[in-house]
Amino acid sequence: MPSSNATSTPMKKLHLLRTHLINAVPGLARDPSRLLTFVEDGSLEFRRGPNLSHEYQFAAQLVLTDFGDDLDTVMVPLLQWLAEYQPDADPGEAVSFEAEILSNQSVDVALRVRLTERVIAKVDCDSGHIHVDHVVSRFERDACPISRWQLLLRDAEADDDYTLAAEWGETDER
Q: Which InterPro entries match (predicted)?
């Protein structure tokens, strides 16, 4: 009988993405409940054979409600995350979005992100066990190994300096 405290959930990539955005986007860090996540248009790809390995393929819908920050404070961390966790994504189809303008200060933004997640399911016919592992590969950024980031924005209409808009990543506490 399965354990009642099992913590294994599908869509681990979506949980990782959500956590990354909450940590990277100041408005979401202050109020994580403003980021709603859904799975839509999901499918399962598998091959016939002796194992039950498969791949989830789905569109993750991320809805930012009453968002008042610059949209780049979401898009840049999102693109950075995709470069690490979904580098094979088709650049023309990986992310789409819609926005509803609520006022001059805020919008509701719906992001649609195509994700895949492999699952290795090994069948042991002798014991009657099926061992399942979700494979969430992370691809290192060889070109830029820094782990702490600051997003600096400049208003295109002004000649002002850049303004710190967001910070995220690991801190170096040596």
A: Phage_tail_completion_R (IPR009678)
